[in-house]
Amino acid sequence: MTFIGTRVVALFLTLTGVIAAPAAALDCENPVRVRISDDYLPFSYMSDHGNVVGLDVEFMRSVFQEIDCSYEFIDIPFKRSIAELAAGRIDMMPFMSITAERQAFARFSAAYRYETAGLVMREADVERYEISSLEDVVKHGLVLGHEHSAYRGEVFKDFLASPLSEKHVYIVSSTEEGVKMLLAGRIDALVEVPSSTLAMARQLGTADVLAEHPFQLLSEPVHFMFSRKTVSDELITAINGAIQELTSTNVYLERFGSMALREPKPEEQMN
């Protein structure tokens, strides 16, 4: 499914009256092809009317408005999107962490918000299981749900590569599937971004059953990821300029709250 963005004032700006000057003069010959998610609440998801919405979606619309570029939102599974970006069949992905493996085929923008990954459990189990490391997961005999190809930090990456993961990790296809398996008791915890998982639970009407465990696997900035095959230095520089403009506004701070950059350095481009 694709969604074409036109050069109109993005909702993020029109609702607030915040319109910054263009970050750079840029001639975008073709729409930027951007992978989005249909179930990554509250960052990128489908509304009841079939429109893609969310905090990161509106931020991206504002970025493209800022640099006067058209864009195309493409809804494809996360695992497939990595291969598509590496091959140059899509140009950009939001909410991405920088890893050595990804740097071989991708480049990254400046950070635009923070993301935390950890465990979401059935509320009754949060106090029942004291967890300060993944060794405790093994000790308690827990089974963790994890979406394939999602990055949840180096510690969890190493755990996935170990023989222990065969007994203690179950691969799920999406956040929604993971939530349903957790509610059904087929897994003990979901390795996810808690804000996203609990937003999904609210949508399913089960928010009072699940809770975030205090144990964290990851807390770091996220970036836009670009295909090395299709995205130019000029475009990345322009997007970084737009990030700098937008993350300096009160609107940004109000919308992203604790996820907002505390000390933004958007001029630092990650190659």
UniProtKB/TrEMBL annotation:
Please report the name of this protein according to its UniProt entry: Amino acid ABC transporter substrate-binding protein (PAAT family)
- Keyword set includes Signal: yes
Q: Which organism is it from?
A: Roseibium hamelinense
Extract the PANTHER family matched here: AMINO-ACID-BINDING PROTEIN YXEM-RELATED (PTHR35936:SF19), MEMBRANE-BOUND LYTIC MUREIN TRANSGLYCOSYLASE F (PTHR35936)
User: What SMART domains does the record tag this protein with?
Assistant: PBPb
Where does the signal peptide begin and end?
1-20
Record InterPro entries: Solute-binding_3/MltF_N
Q: Where is the Solute-binding protein family 3/N-terminal domain?
A: 31-260
Q: Which UniProt keywords apply?
A: Signal
